[in-house]
Design brief:
Blueprint: H1 6-11, E1 16-17, H2 23-28, H3 40-43, H4 45-58, E2 62-63, H5 72-75, H6 84-101, E3 107-112, H7 126-142, E4 147-153, H8 156-169, E5 173-178, E6 181-182, E7 188-189, H9 196-206, E8 210-218, H10 219-230, E9 239-243, E10 248-250, E11 253-255, H11 260-265, H12 267-273, E12 277-280, H13 286-298
Parallel strand pairs: 1-12, 2-3, 3-4, 4-5, 5-8, 8-9, 9-12
Antiparallel strand pairs: 6-7, 10-11
Helix pairs in contact: 4-6, 4-13, 6-7, 7-8, 8-9, 9-10, 10-12
Amino acid sequence: MAKQKIVAAIKSGKVLISDGAWGTFLQKKGLKPGECPELWAVERPADVKAIAQAYFAAGADMVESDSFGGTSFKLEHYGLKDRVAEINEAAARLSAEAAAEASGDKWVIASVGPTGKMLVMEDVTEAELYNAFKEQVVALAKGGADAICIETMSDIAEATLAVKAVKENTSCEVIATFTFALTVNGDYRTMMGVSPEQAAEAMIAAGADIIGPNCGNGIERMIAIVRAMRTVAKDIPILVHANAGLPQNINGVDTFPESPEDMARQVHGLVAAGANIIGGCCGTTPAHIKAMKEAVQAK
């Protein structure tokens, strides 16, 4: 029987659980500063696949892929611009293999991060951005992605081009998430000044199937962001990937303070605000995902 779409599963009344941090996990496995994380999908596939397996074992319904910086613009920094298709297909395939080995419907929401290029600075054209996203998402779809998670965005124009690239070149569902910071005025904005409401409206207009916030905030602050998005996005599913709190630098090391229990305590508030998919970002581990899964099941 064909796997159900993520949106269809949510419409049946389910609150789904996503995975946690990948970068944090890779660092624990030995990723060094200045090393290309995405290249591990080719050179250290067992380690990468083990991350997806650990999150499925913790209770995640979906996992991302080791492809956040997988556009040609990002890979160019490592001399890997010509290996976009190879690296991204491998990254998606490893997560897809882990999904196939897990029980029940499990999805791969392959990660696509920002390019680091800014249209407003005229250091890239819309066509160049679109083509870079197209190259990446086609490879991710070929590798077995069920959805493409366009994440950590701050600029509506860039995110819109990424959504368009997925919609026009794959059959994958599209998730689009933005990163917001609390301003001195007490509201939330991206580094480009975009509010949660503006991001929600723009991504719905672009054709995203699922929207939401990721990174930048702990789970408690995400509740306010989801509420803001829900004022303009009544029906579309919302995904939240929260950090394990705001990082604290201890002896030169960034440490995330929220325990699995801390994050689990906020899950019911997040669901009440309108979240349909809950997972983690920086600092979260399989233990955090397990605790949040148990909180959802206990409600």
